[in-house]
Design brief:
Blueprint lengths: L4 H4 L2 H18 L3 H23 L2 H27 L4 H10 L5 H9 L1 E6 L4 E3 L7 E7 L2 E5 L2 E6 L4 E2 L1 H6 L6 E4 L3 E7 H10 L1 H21 L9
Antiparallel strand pairs: 1-8, 2-7, 3-6, 3-8, 4-5, 4-7
Helix pairs in contact: 2-3, 3-4, 8-9
């Protein structure tokens, strides 16, 4: 196929463009189920393009292998979804905070967490202290303070302590419960151990924390401080 404007918008060119568009869309998906699903259709479209228009056996082979791998992974996700079920509460947390984790992966993470409640005014993290625990707020609000000044608030879906967790530095601010607060609490050593043992969990947890940190920084751009 010649490289011309006409060829780019010919039926074959459109099929080829669709293959790459679907691949790009799949990479943009936060949910691994839909990532695999779109990747399969990208591969099928690519196979059609290679066979019908390019007559390229090498491209068709690699597109077929790409499609097969994603199909197997997608079928495994479907199987896991039916085999491993989450409670409504667990599913809500997984969907909002850890969308790239499968049900089974999320349950491995959930298993190392404890559910704890904090009274209004109770301190979760003290500025200058070592960060030994990581908090994920599931209900209620917390205030982030420097000295006596409130600089921001954290709410459901927010992590507390992620900068100290990743960088192994002391907490940069104090965090206290504003009202009755419920959190998933992870011991940092347990979290590091799980992440080292499972690459998918490491990617999913890192993605969740980075996304939440970015959201907090945007939300608190007046102060530029949204985490501890």
């Amino acid at each position: 196929m010649e490289l011309t404007i006409e060829s780019a918008f010919s039926p074959g060119g459109l099929v080829g463009n669709l293959s790459y568009l679907l691949l790009i869309l799949s990479m943009a998906m936060r949910n691994i189920f839909w990532l695999r699903f779109l990747a399969i259709f990208s591969g099928l479209t690519g196979i059609t393009y290679d066979v019908v228009w390019l007559h390229d056996p090498v491209g068709a082979f690699w597109e077929s292998l790409f499609t097969l791998v994603n199909l197997i992974q997608w079928l495994w996700l479907v199987y896991e979804k039916k085999r491993v079920t989450l409670s409504a509460r667990q599913a809500d947390i997984r969907d909002r905070v850890f969308p790239v984790l499968t049900n089974a992966e999320f349950l491995k993470l959930f298993a190392i967490a404890s559910i704890q409640q904090f009274r209004p005014g109770q301190t979760l993290v003290e500025a200058g202290d070592a960060v030994l625990r990581l908090f994920l707020i599931t209900d209620g609000q917390a205030e982030v303070k420097l000295g006596d000044a409130r600089i921001s608030t954290c709410c459901s879906g927010d992590f507390i302590g992620e900068i100290g967790f990743f960088n192994k530095v002391p907490a940069t601010a104090t965090v206290c419960a504003l009202d009755t607060l419920e959190c998933l609490v992870f011991e940092c050593d347990d979290m590091h151990r799980v992440m080292q043992a499972n690459n998918n969990l490491e990617r999913g947890i890192t993605f969740a924390m980075n996304a939440n940190l970015a959201n907090k920084l945007i939300r608190n751009n007046a102060t530029g401080i949204g985490s501890v």
